[in-house]
Amino acid sequence: MIQYKLLTPGPLTTTDTVKKEMMADHCTWDDDYKQITQKIRKELLKLAHVSEEEYTAVLMQGSGSFGVESVLTSVIGEDEKLLIVANGAYGERMADIAEHAKMKYSIYKEEYDKIPSAEKVEEMLEADPAITHVAMVHSETTSGILNDITAVAKVVKAAGKTMIVDAMSSFGGMEIPVGELGIDFIVSSANKCIQGVPGFSFIICNREKLMESKGKARSLALDLYDQWKTMEKDGKWRFTSPTHTVLAFAKALEELEMEGGIPARAKRYADNNHLLIQKMEEMGIHTYIGAEHQGPIITAFYYPEHHKFSFQEMYAYIKERGYAIYPGKVTDADTFRIGNIGEIYEEDILKLCGIFKEFFASIEV
Ligand SMILES: *Cc1c(COP(=O)(O)O)cnc(C)c1O
């Protein structure tokens, strides 16, 4: 059995009770199962602070990228155009999706350590009236930066365009008033802040916008409208559903509520994140993102300046002592990352920082 905790942004460390739910082989066509799916869909709308009249939740097989690809390739028609706002690998993945689907798109690339500017988005929308949709990432897991979706959604809405948000690593771990912000499609997945296991993504959709997308999909399996149409009838998934993952997710939602809902979870994540950064700074390890825009989910730290430093060695040292950290992903600096989402508590952060201290002492940092 694996004896370490994950400090990675999904999959992440889940509770034993969530894992135990997967010990049952559930059939997919009976009412029991369909009710579980329907309950999950309702609960997700509550977490997003939206009404069932205005919004609907669709569950989609596959990892988070399948959810993003499903939205982009299903709701943007042949004669429509997407503006992608990117300041990290996940924003750039959206451009990759658009490329593969041969969609019309333009991209506003920002530096990885800066948040995209709403004014710039506004200017781009004014300069190019062909743009119909705008897509951006909320918590850019590449660096840990938290983008200002409120400011961007405001200009997108004022221009009368459709707003798509990849909130993969933030939904459930931070309050996002989806309706109030006017977000039309927001995507997350089972194995991030809801603290389930990998296997499906979910999309909270503005009903009207979803209806408008009928017939636009470029993919059969990822057709968002068609998936919704089937699921909306009685909770049946269109193709084989990831049953074990769904059972685990239903349990994870219950446990989120027991913890005190998103406010309590958000506080735990933010407190752990602050403690981690404070302890690392005390050891002379600095964050890649400045305090103003550092998000509460994952943190990128610069390598210590030391000739003996090897990430692989540090990784192995820490893993042997009970924690798996994450390599860096930003392209312009040497960094490593530590996620603090999942079943991670203050004692874990303190223990982890103790291990770092020992490791740095051993290489004389
Ligand atoms: C995890 C994540 C994704 C999805 O990645 P998958 O590997 O497909 O699950 C997309 N965007 C962001 C911001 C993420 O953190």
Specify the CATH architecture of the largest domain: 3-Layer(aba) Sandwich
Average per-residue pLDDT, rounded, comes to: 97
Task: Describe the strand arrangement of the main beta sheet, using strand numbers.
Answer: 2-10-9-8-5-3-4
N-to-C SSE string, H for helix and E for strand: EHHEHEHEHEEEHEHEEHHHHEHEEEH
Outline the low-pLDDT stretches.
Answer: none
What is the straight-line distance between the termini? 33 Å
- CATH C-level class of the largest domain is Alpha Beta
Helix content: 40-55%
In words, what does this structure look like?
This protein is an alpha/beta fold and 365 residues long. It folds into two domains: 5-9 and 260-362, Alpha-Beta Complex (Aspartate Aminotransferase, domain 1), CATH 3.90.1150.10; 16-257, 3-Layer(aba) Sandwich (Aspartate Aminotransferase, domain 2). 42% of the residues lie in helices and 17% in strands. It contains 13 helices and 14 strands. A seven-stranded mixed sheet has the order 2-10-9-8-5-3-4, with helices on both faces. The longest helix has 22 residues, at 261-282. The chain starts with a strand and ends with a helix. The mean pLDDT is 97. Bound molecules: pyridoxal-5'-phosphate. Pyridoxal-5'-phosphate (PLP) is lined by residues 9-10, 63-65, 90, 137, 141, 166, 168-169, 189.
